[in-house]
Structure formats: C-alpha cells, structure tokens
Design a protein that fits this description.
mainly alpha, 434 Repressor (Amino-terminal Domain), 4 helices, 10% strand, elongated, 3-stranded antiparallel β-sheet
Length: 78
C-alpha cells in the first residue's frame, strides 16, 4: 500500500488515478510529465492505467514533479 502526503492508505491501483488527476490539475500532458520527470511516455501511460509496476526511484521522480510524496510504513511482525 502507498501513502500520499495526506496520509490516506491506498492500494496500488489508486496510484494511477492520483497521478492522473494531479497531472491534469496542473495542466500537464503525459508527454510533459514524462519529459520533466525523465521517464518515458509509456511509463506514465502504464502507471496511470494501472498496468505499470514502477520502481521506487521512478515513482519518486514522477511524484516530485507533481508536488507529491510517498511514505512506506512497515508493519510490525505479529
């Protein structure tokens, strides 16, 4: 699960929707985001359509451009 700045737990499937909504709110095309983040357009498309499995480094680049961040929390072993 990923957590975006507002600390709402979410599933990986929600990530693409969040990225797409933020990108469009900033009036960025997929091509623009890809170029600024230093990734391919195919990467952006895949993530937004929940078909991609980005590395943490790629995700960090994209979220940074969008003014977002993510935190990973490890559950304690029971």
């Amino acid at each position: 699960m990923f957590t975006i700045r507002n600390l709402i737990p979410m599933k990986q499937e929600d990530l693409g929707s969040i990225i797409q909504k933020r990108r469009t709110s900033l009036a960025l095309k997929q091509e623009d985001l890809a170029e600024i983040a230093g990734v391919t357009i195919k990467t952006i498309y895949s993530i937004e359509n929940n078909k991609g499995n980005p590395t943490f480094q790629v995700l960090q680049k994209i979220l940074s451009v969008l003014g977002l961040e993510f935190d990973i929390h490890i559950k304690k072993a029971e």
